[in-house]
Amino acid sequence: MANLSVTFCGVTFENPTVLASGILGVTASSLKNVVRNGAGGVTTKSIWLEEHPGHKNPTMIGTEHFFLNAVGLSDGGIKKAKEETFPEYLADKPAPIIGNVIAKSLSDFEKIVAEMDACGPDIIEVNISCPNVDDKYGKPFSCSVGGASDVTRIVRSATKKPLIIKLTPNVPNIAEIAEACAKEGADGFCLINTVAGMVIDTKLRMPVLTNKSGGVSGPAIKPVAVKATYDVFKATGLPIIGTGGIMTGEDAIEIMMAGARLVGMGTMVYYRDVAGFAEVVKEMDIWCEKNGVKNLEEIIGVAVKK
Amino acid sequence: MNIEKFDSRFEILPIKEIIDENPTTKTFVFEYPLGGKPGQFIMMWIPGVDEKPMSVAFDDGKEFWVTVCKVGPASEALHLMKVGDLVGVRGPLGTHYNWGNGDHLALVAGGYGAAPMYFVAREAVKRGCKVEFFIGARSKDLLLYVDKISKLEGVNLHISTNDGSEGRQGFVTVLLDEVLAEGNCDVVFTCGPEVMMKAVGEVADKHNVASYMSMEKYMKCGIGVCGQCAVDDTGELVCKQGPVMDWKYLKKLPEMGKYHRDAQGTKHYF
After folding, report:
1. What is the mean pLDDT of chain A?
2. What residues of A are in contact with residue B7 (Cβ under 8 Å)?
3. Residue B93 forms beta bridges with which residues?
4. Which among A9, A130, A181, A288 is annotated as catalytic?
5. Which residue of chain A has the CA closest to B224?
6. Is the CB of B9 less than 8 angstroms away from the CB of A64?
7. Which residues in chain B show pLDDT less than 50?
8. Which CATH superfamily is domain B11-93 in?
9. Lower Cβ count inside 10 Å, N or C end of chain A?
10. In a 3-state reduction of DSSP, which class is residue A123?
11. In this structure, are residues B158 and B179 in contact, taking their beta carbons and an 8 Å threshold?
12. What is the ipTM of this complex?
């Protein structure tokens, strides 16, 4: 068996699969169940300073090629995370936990990161890229070099924990945004967030999602995620959680070759159920055996060097 | 890996017929081969309003029914719709009830839980089962489906109301306890408020009869992705492992009969 463990920002993961933010992350019980099903780590839903209702249904729709969602970041707020989710998860912590946070303004980003720091996650992931909140709050911060720099600078001052920024693919040059975050002290990245999209029901002649537009995930976006990972790894060399359309062990290997150190999966559970985590890990192991890879470190970013 | 065709887009269907059941409840009929089994649910999109899980009250392969009580903005909007209006449907979703030919079933319905239990009874009698049908409500005007259930052959109807306006006064579990004591029932199925179902499970345990129940937790996606319906402390999903679940499993959950969670995942105690 190959050594599938990886170290990310000083934190050791037994295997590189990580539950992506927004999926099965409402309660500590659910996060633990994902680890029981094989994930090497978990990410919380995006946590706000206050309770956040999210959008009305329909919020999700899938086909064999893609999944589209606009849940709208529903969440019980940092108080619930601090009093319930983190204490329950950390009580018998089965794997590293990444605390994902979101806010509407720079000052709220500073506050939420400080609050998250106190919850005790291994890594803090800052969501500056959700496509489903931009109607109300303007363009996501990660859409401009200036916005991404500003958030990174302020959240960096609020925590000494490993700090990663979740980036959007909905920009002309993601590497430029990542470089700006790196300059302000980001320790790494999670990418990509979902790709902006829409589905219209032709019988009703209206968008299916209540929010009208949403974020595309699933098999269709894997090439977008692989390229974004490649570009950001090449530009910064920083550790990356590569996510977007990863469904199989070979998909995971592919995005690691583009530079990902960890592999995020969320929509995969729609296609393979939560048990898919253990299956993907097993598939990665089989791939390593067949290809003479003893340690996953050997393949991280290998395609970028060629 | 073989990704099977996996399509959760909505089937857009016109309402074929609307039946008034009681002052707050209507049955909506759709002509569509859904293929739902007793206990399963659908997600129904009321365009421009919301999308909610609803249990299948009947399905004969040609048409299916959902029986909906006015409980909030989505069901109120549905109640205002007319024959011919369009809704979106996806499903059938989740687990269903299972029984053997000729079994003697005890079905316990609380409030609008009568609709899915009726679907069980209707299918069960076709397969030579004998059915004890317990139906409980706060008062006579809130009883559902009594006429339909009475017309089924092989079904004994036991009614209780909290105020005594119809049948026995008190909780439906008292009647269940008496009938199970006779020792003839093979299994108990129940659908209703969680606190009632917990009491039903305890009565069934007392008589060493297996029981299964239709769990209702806040569901957002209904397709195993969002995690809203994860139960404590196993973290498993009611939309995938349920809604029909084994009381043997449920009774070990610390949240059973105690609390549920809202759209933000915040706990609310019953």
Report:
1. 95
2. 62-64
3. B41
4. A130
5. A270
6. no
7. 1-4
8. Translation factors (2.40.30.10)
9. C
10. strand
11. yes
12. 0.91
